[in-house]
Every structure is written in structure tokens, then in C-alpha cells.
Amino acid sequence: MDRSQKADSVASLNAVFNEVGVVVITRNLGMSVAQSTALRLKIRDAGATYKVAKNKLAQLAIKNTDYEGIDTMFSGPTAIATSVDPVAAAKAVVDFAKTTDKIEIVGGSMGTHVLNADGIKALASMPSLDEMRGTLIGLIQAPATKIAQLTVAPASKLARVFNAYAEKDAA
């Protein structure tokens, strides 16, 4: 890799670090190609990205971003999982780490908050942004549904009473 390629790599990583909501750093401990492909697919399906980058280039790329506190985590064979949703990347990596011992969660950061491996696991246990939106919409719609049921209920009861009288007179 020559200087211009390194500069391009640092610039693209810096752009990623400026856009994402969470960064998860993993250490690969001899994953096979099939395992690596499965991990990448799982992370992509979650709406996140997974990239293996040279440690020195990643350390240069996080300068002047919110993720400067994680520069010491880049040692050994590391990879970076990122996502705009603060939970997506963490959830995908933690779920995959449960299936194999070939990947180790080193830590990461959510904005300026540096997280260790336990912090990433705790973050992964939270509901995703889409799940939270669904819950919030459900909570907002519930009172409206109850009001609609209450306004319709007296009319339906009255209709049943009239129907009962009509059936009684017919008999």
C-alpha cells in the first residue's frame, strides 16, 4: 500500500467515524473465510458495516472525531463494526460472538463514551432504534384506540337492546 492509498484509506475511515453512532472493535482469533463471510452478512443485514483496517491507519482516522478515546484498543488483528443506529452493530457482533470463540469483543465507543466489552454487550441487549420507534408508536396509538372503543360501545349496546325488543315483539 503506497502513501496515496493510505491517505485515501484514512480519509474514508475518518468520514465513516464522523457519520456513525457507534463503533465496535473486535479481535479476530483465526476465523475461517466462511465464518468471516457469515459475520459480514449478519452485520450487513443489521444495517451496519464491518471493516478490517490497519491499526495505525485507524488510529490516524479517529483523530478529530468523537472516537479519539478508543485509539488504545487498536492492537493485534482488529476489525471495526460501525452503524448509525447505536445498537445495530453491537447487537450483530455480540450475537455472532455467542456462536463462536474465534472473535473477541475488545470494546468500542458510542459517541464520546468509551465502552469496554461489557458495555458493548449491555448496549447490544437494548432494543434497536426501529424497535423503540414501534413501541413508541404503539404507546401513542393505544389511548386513541381506547377512546374510539368507548365512543362506539354505547351505540352498539343500544342497537343490541333495540334488536332484542324487535325479536321479542316478533316472537
Automatic annotation (TrEMBL):
Protein task: Forms part of the ribosomal stalk, playing a central role in the interaction of the ribosome with GTP-bound translation factors.
Record-stated family: Belongs to the universal ribosomal protein uL10 family.
Pfam name, any one: Ribosomal_L10
UniProt GO MF annotations: large ribosomal subunit rRNA binding; structural constituent of ribosome
Gene: rplJ
Gene Ontology cellular component terms for the protein in this record: large ribosomal subunit
InterPro entries referenced in this protein's UniProt entry, alphabetically: Ribosomal_uL10, Ribosomal_uL10-like_sf, Ribosomal_uL10_bac, Ribosomal_uL10_bac_type, Ribosomal_uL10_CS_bac
Organism from which the protein derives: Novosphingobium fluoreni
Matches recorded under Gene3D superfamilies: 3.30.70.1730, 6.10.250.290
Keywords, ordered alphabetically: Ribonucleoprotein, Ribosomal protein, RNA-binding, rRNA-binding
Organism taxonomic ancestry: Bacteria, Pseudomonadati, Pseudomonadota, Alphaproteobacteria, Sphingomonadales
Entry keyword Nucleotide-binding: no
Database matches in PANTHER family: 39S RIBOSOMAL PROTEIN L10, MITOCHONDRIAL
Quaternary context: Part of the ribosomal stalk of the 50S ribosomal subunit. The N-terminus interacts with L11 and the large rRNA to form the base of the stalk. The C-terminus forms an elongated spine to which L12 dimers bind in a sequential fashion forming a multimeric L10(L12)X complex.
Protein name: Large ribosomal subunit protein uL10
HAMAP family cross-referenced by the UniProt entry: Ribosomal_uL10 (MF_00362)
GO biological process, one term: translation
